[in-house]
Write a structure and sequence with these properties.
Its main location: cytoplasm. Pathway: Protein modification; protein ubiquitination. Part of the SCF (SKP1-CUL1-F-box) E3 ubiquitin-protein ligase complex SCF(FBXO32) formed of CUL1, SKP1, RBX1 and FBXO32. This is F-box only protein 32. By secondary structure, the protein is mainly α. It folds into 3 domains: 119 residues; 62 residues, no CATH class; 39 residues, no CATH class. The chain has a 4-stranded antiparallel beta sheet. A hairpin with a 4-residue loop joins β2 and β3. α3 crosses α6. The longest helix is centred in the first third of the chain and has 36 residues. The radius of gyration is 26 Å and the shape is globular.
Length: 312
């Protein structure tokens, strides 16, 4: 009898273990499919307890496939700006997993810049913003403002310093190509190209390349259009600066204005919120919308709009 009871007990344990393994396997498969297939997130209406428990900034950050977005030139600046806004004020809103994901994406951004040597200044500014924020937050560790061990965050800060050093060590070499250069083009074309630059610092840097470009980069009309592009007439009227000749000094006004007001942001591609089903996704991403014309229901969100969705 004891032998039979033991066999029965072992048999029951085996059945339970087998069922548990089968259930775990099914759950794992479901999670993997769910993670890879759904690259959108439903944003709840209103500031409800349900929304606070599920639809958080960290959850959205994990679900919206930012790792792939940084490889798309149309989305790169958008993601970098979003990383900067989170670094300034939203780090403590991220869960531990979301914070880890944030650092992983940041590392991929840095590696991309090191490889293609583009957007160096943009990423330097992002890293400096993040490092400054972390210095402030780590000093307040007693108030539990950061998720995770303090040593882990110190290690991450060391990584940021290392990335900054790598960016500072980049040596951009002049290409060996001996064909037509920018200065070989007619002056009207050179000026037209300069008008495409939306950052005054890029215009100043371009003017340092050659004496002829220096003259063009000081063009008053060029700086006037730059001011009018980024700022309203009312903002401009409040910051008028006259030159020695009694004319408006648009270049000085531009750099004064950017210290006082945010510049206009423009992106090739943005996250979009469907007004019909309240699903947040990248443009072109399929989502289960019941509207007859889903394309007409989408509203583009700026990085700040994205952050504001999760403030409640």
């Amino acid at each position: 009898d004891d032998h039979n009871k033991e066999n029965l007990f072992n048999s029951l344990n085996y059945d339970v273990a087998a069922k548990k393994r089968k259930k775990d396997l099914l759950n794992n498969k479901t999670k993997i499919q769910y993670f890879h297939q759904e690259k959108w997130i439903y944003v709840h209406k209103g500031s409800t307890k349900e929304r606070h428990g599920y639809c958080t900034l960290g959850e959205a950050f994990n679900r919206l496939d930012f790792s792939s977005a940084i490889l798309d030139s149309r989305r790169f600046n958008y993601v970098v700006r979003l990383l900067e806004l989170i670094a300034k004020s939203q780090l403590t809103s991220l869960s531990g997993i979301a914070q880890k994901n944030y650092m992983n994406i940041l590392e991929k951004v840095v590696q991309k810049v090191l490889e293609d040597q583009q957007n160096i200044r943009l990423i330097r500014e992002l890293l400096q913003t993040l490092y400054t924020s972390l210095c402030t937050l780590v000093q307040r560790v007693g108030k539990s403002v950061l998720v995770g061990n303090i040593n882990m965050w110190v290690h991450r800060m060391e990584s940021i310093l290392h990335w900054q050093q790598q960016l500072n060590n980049i040596q951009i070499t002049r290409p060996a190509f001996k064909g037509t250069t920018l200065t070989d083009l007619p002056l009207c074309l050179q000026l037209n190209i300069m008008q495409r630059l939306s950052d005054g610092r890029d215009l100043v840097s371009l003017g340092q390349v050659a004496p002829d470009l220096q003259v063009l980069s000081e063009d008053r009309l060029l700086w006037k259009k730059l001011c009018q592009y980024h700022f309203t007439d009312r903002q401009i009227r409040k910051r008028l600066i006259l030159s020695d000749k009694g004319q408006l000094d648009w270049k000085k006004m531009y750099f004064k204005l950017i210290r006082c007001y945010p510049r206009k942001e423009q992106y090739g591609d943005t996250l979009q919120l469907c007004r019909h089903c309240h699903i947040l996704s990248w443009k072109g991403t399929d989502h289960p919308c019941t509207a007859n014309n889903p394309e007409t229901c989408s509203t583009s969100l700026s990085p700040q709009d994205f952050i504001n969705l999760f403030r409640f």
